[in-house]
Amino acid sequence: MGMIDTSIIQHILKKKWEIAFSSLVVLLVVLVSGFLSTHTAINGTLLTTLVGFGLDPQRANFVTSLLLTILVSLVGATLSRRWMVVMMGGVVFFSVHYLAHFLTTAMLPMRDPGGLLEPLDALALLHTSLMMFALAILASCIGVALGRGLAYTLVRPLMHLLAFLYQQRRTQQMVARQEEVRSLPEMRRENVYRLPRVIRELLQALGFIAVLILALGSVNLFVYAPDVGLHLSPAQADLAGTDHVVSQSTILYDTYRSPEMGGQTRSFVVYLPPSYTTPAAKNRRYPVLYLLHGSPGQETNWLTGGKAAQSEDTLSALGKAPELILIMPDGNGRAGETSEWGNSGDGKQLLESSIVQDLVPYVDRKYRTIADASHRGIGGLSMGGFGAANIGIHHPSTFGFIIALGGYYYASGSIWGENAAYLRANSPADVLLQQKQARYIHYFIGAATRDELYSASLRFVHELKQLHIPSTFEAIKGYHAWNIWQIELYHALQWLNTVMR
């Protein structure tokens, strides 16, 4: 009996070593395939394609790493049935290829466009890292699922054929081996080192739910950039050793009823400067800047991606920008097409009229604004840059300055319809030629040199010069991305100090 027990133990140990060795081989196969994918045309092709679709390099690298994680997991799951090991290999690959570099970069000293140190938010970095880790797990799961499907449809039939041919010569040995295995006592099924199956599967399910919850919060990593929100404002510390310490500004979420939009209740975000709520400033009135988001987008974009509140806090504390009220409305219209912040060609969506005739009067009534054009401006990015120029030029008695970043200046999109005259009437570059009063507006035009809209900005700036309209133009080397618009808004806020004197 003792000899039988020894053979059983030896058999179990042998199987354990075989499993461990094969798992190590599978893990190495996944990691090697990942390494090869980053040093071939695959990586470069993915990056180039994503940048071509409008992603900046930072987001393109992040998405590429997730796609490569799917690929290496697919390869591993196609070649092996040890799917948990394959998934682990995919996560390890992502951690080595992307996450480690991201963490190293994120922990480097970060400064705002004015050179002031932005302290690292350790909790935000931890949360972002966990979201990335969760996305890596999901990417590995996707790769494994695809690999399993590929294995069952293509690889498994071939392997079964080879196995059948191989087994013809070893039938007797395998039968003997199977009988030996069947003779193993019940202890083989009662492994004291393994959790009961039900508990193990429950823990796996709970773990996967946690991964999904983390992954659902990762939208901002794709919309803005992986490093968004990782650093605190210089306003939350002494400004780089200066004597300026910033008080707390106020962010409000408000709504207004818009008759121009058929009685809809429209939402917007309000930034109130630190002094607004102090007793000393209870009768003080403030200039207003309306900031329009791009597409796709929402009213909080300028706070999250553009650091509008942070920049205004810092610059106003240093006396480099006027204290402003910032109004950030929702510019989404009917489903299926971009609103362009305009009045649609069929007259059913009057978003421009909603801003000018509904929102502006509402803000002037509710908040302590300086209600004249010389102290009221409108700005935006991308579609919002177009909207700011279009609305501002149409209404020079309402807006005295325009900030257009990464914008375009000829109407495009299905919202306008097919009427050529209406398209021209909503193209700032055309309207400016006829609207002489708009030539007294102050213009700040920002662009990125590698943005496909860069040439549109150059043409519009050239038109401004030809019409002898004073303007400020800033071009920064980079792409159609938030890191460019953060810098340009920062400089535009400083520019307002000269505009509103």
Oligomer: single chain
What value does the average pLDDT take? 84
Largest sheet: 8 strands, mixed
Percent helix, as a range, is 40-55%
Strand residue percentage: 5-15%
Would you tell me which CATH topology of the largest domain applies? Answer: Rossmann fold
CA radius of gyration is 30 Å
Could you tell me the number of beta strands? 10
The second-level CATH architecture of the largest domain is: 3-Layer(aba) Sandwich
Poorly predicted runs of 5 or more residues: 186-195
Order of helices and strands: HHHHEEHHHHEEEHHEHEHEHHEHEH
Count the DSSP helices: 16
- N-C termini distance: 100 Å
Walkthrough of the structure:
With 501 residues, the chain is an alpha/beta fold. The chain has 2 domains: 2-223, no CATH class; 234-499, Rossmann fold (3-Layer(aba) Sandwich). The protein has helices at residues 2-38, 41-52, 57-79, 83-106, 122-167, 171-182, 197-216, 219-223, 301-304, 308-317, 351-366, 383-394, 420-425, 428-434, 454-466, 482-499, and strands at residues 110-111, 117-118, 250-258, 264-272, 288-292, 325-329, 376-381, 401-405, 442-448, 471-476. The strands form 2 sheets. An 8-stranded mixed sheet has the order 3-4-6-5-7-8-9-10, with helices on both faces. A hairpin with a 5-residue loop joins strand 1 and strand 2 (117-118). The longest helix is centred in the N-terminal third of the chain and has 46 residues, at 122-167.
Write the layout of secondary structure elements.
Layout: H1 2-38, H2 41-52, H3 57-79, H4 83-106, E1 110-111, E2 117-118, H5 122-167, H6 171-182, H7 197-216, H8 219-223, E3 250-258, E4 264-272, E5 288-292, H9 301-304, H10 308-317, E6 325-329, H11 351-366, E7 376-381, H12 383-394, E8 401-405, H13 420-425, H14 428-434, E9 442-448, H15 454-466, E10 471-476, H16 482-499
